[in-house]
Amino acid sequence: xxxxxxxxxxxxxxxxxxxxxxxxxxxxxxxxxxxxxxxxxxxxxxxxxxxxxxxxxxxxxxxxxxxxxxxxxxxxxxxxxxxxxxxxxxxxxxxxxxxxxxxxxxxxxxxxxxxxxxxxxxxxxxxxxxxxxxxxxxxxxxxxxxxxxxxxxxxxxxxxxxxxxxxxxxxxxxxxxxxxxxxxxxxxxxxxxxxxxxxxxxxxxxxxxxxxxxxxxxxxxxxxxxxxxxxxxxxxxxxxxxxxxxxxxxxxxxxxxxxxxxxxxxxxxxxxxxxxxxxxxxxxxxxxxxxxxxxxxxxxxxxxxxxxxxxxxxxxxxxxxxxxxxxxxxxxxxxxxxxxxxxxxxxxxxxxxxxxxxxxxxxxxxxxxxxxxxxxxxxxxxxxxxxxxxxxxxxxxxxxxxxxxxxxxxxxxxxxxxxxxxxxxxxxxxxxxx
Length: 434
Ligand code: NI
Description:
Layout: E1 11-16, E2 23-30, H1 35-55, E3 65-76, E4 79-88, E5 95-104, E6 110-112, H2 122-133, H3 149-152, E7 156-158, E8 164-167, E9 182-185, H4 187-190, H5 196-204, E10 245-251, H6 258-267, E11 273-276, H7 278-283, H8 285-293, E12 297-300, H9 313-331, E13 356-357, E14 361-362, H10 365-368, H11 371-380, E15 387-391, H12 395-410, E16 414-415, H13 418-422, E17 430-431
Parallel strand pairs: 2-3, 10-11, 10-15, 10-16, 11-12, 13-17, 14-15
Antiparallel strand pairs: 1-2, 3-4, 4-5, 5-6, 7-8, 8-9
Helix pairs in contact: 6-12, 11-12
The structure holds nickel (II) ion (NI).
């Protein structure tokens, strides 16, 4: 199971680079009817991205990575809670930060975490939180920075006892290496301090169970590492040793434009390969089922688009196996192909038991967001055996697809899935084209 609640009607917007200069994925929920909330989280998420891009420098190969995910963490009684988790895994400087909002999906208001507490009590409450959380630090590690309630009370959630749990940003009370501190407040302690909206939230929303953590849970079942070539199911009957084949691949979805893309591909009778994120598949299960039912191949793009070369073998295994399990269950297909996010992998990735599929034609559609430019790039260097990289999370890429399909066929190229293009592959093999 992938962390994050599945809420009917909630869709996700996503901005992701498919390059490591710099690498980023920013994803945030869009809740129908909660415009104020949607605007607040979009503004916060995009501000993180702008700051990251500015700070990570303009040079290529800086190795910086930003990962922002805003998810619904609780909903009920017309209210919804969302938490932003931002991860910058930069070695010793790496950190995880959180921010939580509460909103109505009917009355269009949104508050930040600290506003659960009446304004006149926020300072005292924040002091209490710091007092309690600093006990988790090692001796003499506490640094008194004169923190404001806005800094301390960024991630406040309802806990199982009807009290509040406050998670403090890493590095706030001590050094980054001290990790994350938190404070638990009982319902009796918080009751006199709540704001009217805070009371409403406590009455309506269910508790948020897990304390956020940057560590993924251990893999439930380690993936097998077969030594034989992974068998694939060439469905088309096209022999790409004879026919001039080309594969269109769509990464990072499914998302809000995927249904339209499937309509276009269906109208053009064009098969494609979708390298899906496990968390997006879980949010849009019908799109996974539909893509598979309509003859497209489903590939694995990990759970949440982390750069695998920065993760331990166990973490990589969790990313790949968890996403594969979700995709397999929804699609009914064996999901054997892995496209590592950013095309980034290391020696460990090649031991995961799956072939790695890169590309030789990069449309840079995530960067140009322009159907004409995307089309031009798709056609500029394509040749028989090519794998073309596109992203179905961008409207411009979906708009470009019918024209690309038509132009490829005009050149005598036959569209096939990646498995049909490449045939059987050995686990750990890296392919960029046929
Ligand atoms: Ni990607």
